[in-house]
Design a protein that fits this description.
- Helix content is 25%, strand content 26%.
- Helix 8 links the parallel strand 14 and strand 15.
- The model has no long low-confidence stretch (mean pLDDT 94).
- Bound molecules: zinc ion (ZN) (2 copies).
- One zinc ion binds next to loops.
Length: 357
């Protein structure tokens, strides 16, 4: 079997033959159908996140169960599944019991399961999936069943980008009708936050970005207003669109300190800024007095996703025409063209590039 191996940051991935273990207890072996290139993968490729060893990235994946290990009960051979870099929760740990299954403490990460032909282990990178390979092994709790007729290149988007963006709005923020929303950074995840806000009945839904073509895309996904932050102060732009009050929720998708600061300043009283990007930004210049208006910051762990509950729901609303997925896929590539797919994703030219196996 082939995999795209990252040996060194800033170097091309090496597509080569690798070996894979058999699934252990609770684990499933998956034949990959499709894996989307996510920006978290790119942070590893670029060395923004230090890698401890050579490994296999790819965590936004769909595939077919090939083999199940001992004690696996939720899926069987032949099932079509989405795989995610979080688990649906063990159901027994304290976090699961209080309803925070996406923050489960009970599952120890398995792997590495891949080895190169020199016998060196290849760890899963950017999440415990290892999806840039023809086969991989994940814990059964990381999988959610999807219908057989859902195309793989669409299904894979339900492994990270949709969960992260849509989930930040509907699960973490729990946006309600007529609440106002701004999304800063309208790449793939940002567009999913926008469609989550539109689905929730938010108004206005304001897209903030530096590029007009991204703002145009945002309108197609449900943004009611757009603010081009390269053409003036986006905080003022957002305030103008909310009667001077500011928004109830801002979602930070853009990896910059400036975006973090702007997201906070564009909030109305008791508004919440939700940190979705987790890579860069300095928050040391926030002063205690800035919180007098009861404005809040919070994080969102992969959209606070309840994997086995949310994925089937997303499939349902996709089939009903209320969730755009096809429109998120810019181009499909074979595994041997993975470096082309990554370069195109890095350039910002693509919403999502997908490796199809
Ligand atoms: Zn991702
Ligand atoms: Zn748990």
């Amino acid at each position: 079997m082939q995999a795209a191996v990252l040996y060194e940051a800033k170097q091309p991935l090496v597509v080569e033959d690798v070996d894979l273990d058999s699934p252990g207890p609770g684990e499933v072996k998956i034949r990959l159908g499709a894996t989307a290139i996510c920006h978290s993968d790119i942070h590893f490729f670029d060395g923004d996140v230090p890698m401890r060893s050579a490994g296999i990235a790819g965590h936004e994946c769909a595939g077919i169960v090939e083999e199940v290990g001992a004690d696996v009960t939720s899926v069987k051979r032949g099932d079509h599944v989405v795989m995610a870099p979080i688990t649906g929760g063990c159901g027994r740990c304290m976090n699961c019991m209080v309803g925070l299954r996406h923050l489960c403490q009970g599952v120890t990460r398995s792997g590495p399961h891949h080895r190169n032909k020199r016998g060196e282990p290849l760890a899963p990178l950017a999440g415990p999936v290892g999806g840039l390979a023809e086969y991989t092994i994940v814990h059964e709790f990381q999988t959610a069943k999807v219908p057989d007729d859902l195309p793989m290149h669409v299904a894979c988007l339900l492994g990270c980008g949709v969960l992260t963006g849509f989930g930040a709005v509907v699960n973490r923020a729990q946006v309600k009708p007529f609440q106002s929303v701004a999304v800063i950074g309208t790449g793939g995840v940002g567009l999913n936050a926008i469609q989550g806000a539109a689905f929730s009945g938010a108004h206005p839904v304001i897209a903030v970005d530096l590029l007009d073509n991204k703002l145009e895309a945002a309108r197609k996904f449900g943004a009611t207003h757009t603010v081009n932050a390269s053409q003036g102060d986006p905080v003022q732009g957002v305030k103008n669109l909310t009667g001077g009050r500011g928004v109830d929720f801002s979602f930070i998708m853009a990896a910059s300190s400036k975006a973090v600061r702007q997201a906070f300043e564009m909030l109305g009283p008791r508004g919440t800024a939700v940190m979705v990007q987790i890579t860069s930004g300095d928050m040391s210049d926030f002063a205690p007095r800035e919180f007098i208006g009861e404005r809040m910051f919070t994080g969102s762990m992969l959209g606070s996703t309840r994997l086995q509950l949310d994925v089937p729901r997303y499939v349902d609303i996709y089939k009903a025409g209320r969730l755009k997925l096809d429109e998120l896929v810019t181009e499909c590539y074979s595994l041997d063209r993975v470096n082309e797919a990554v370069a195109s994703s890095k350039s910002g030219a693509a919403l999502r590039n997908v490796i199809v196996f």
